[in-house]
Design a protein that fits this description.
Radius of gyration: 19 Å
Strand order of the largest sheet: 1-6-7-2
Number of strands: 7
Shape: elongated
Number of helices: 1
Length: 162
């Protein structure tokens, strides 16, 4: 596994990634969702009032894995290498409780994830890995009085050039 010292992340600031890179073909990426349901802290059976929610990602490590070379049934080119990315999404929810006036509460929820990105066959197992990422969407909603649903959509691109 590769330590955090060998992982370089760059945030994509614009939501429409195509506008930022008109001349660059997007390769070696993954787009995925991380979800979690939790029970909310309430008393007297009253639901919370959601003020705001956000998410950030923390990549713990990466590992290059040898796989098969060829074309998948869906037509995807398989290069013989995949990059396994392990990390956490930290959801933060800010909310009010109706019977407690003028106090904003927050809850942090850490959700682990793992994803693969197909990378070029020439990718070395050691070295510095460079990525761009974007949190495309963060959603939090009450399913019922006591249960909250979080979802985040994340785009991660492996950068092949140094």
């Amino acid at each position: 596994m590769i330590s955090k010292d060998n992982i370089h992340f760059e945030v994509i600031k614009q939501l429409d990634y195509k506008e930022e890179n008109d001349n660059e073909e997007i390769k070696f990426f993954t787009d995925f969702n991380v979800k979690r349901s939790i029970y909310t802290p309430t008393n007297f059976g009253k639901p919370i009032i959601i003020s705001n929610s956000n998410a950030c990602i923390d990549i713990n490590n990466c590992k290059v894995i040898d796989t098969i070379k060829g074309t998948s049934l869906e037509g995807q080119h398989l290069s013989s290498k995949k990059l396994l990315i392990l990390g956490n999404v930290i959801f933060t929810l800010y909310f009010f409780i109706p019977y407690i006036c003028d106090h904003l509460f927050h809850v942090d929820e850490i959700v682990p994830f793992s994803v693969f990105i197909i990378v070029p066959g020439s990718t070395k197992k050691e070295g510095i890995f460079r990525f761009k990422y974007m949190i495309e969407d963060v959603t939090s909603t009450l399913i019922n009085k006591h249960k909250l649903f979080f979802n985040v959509s994340i785009f991660i691109q492996y950068l092949n050039n140094p």
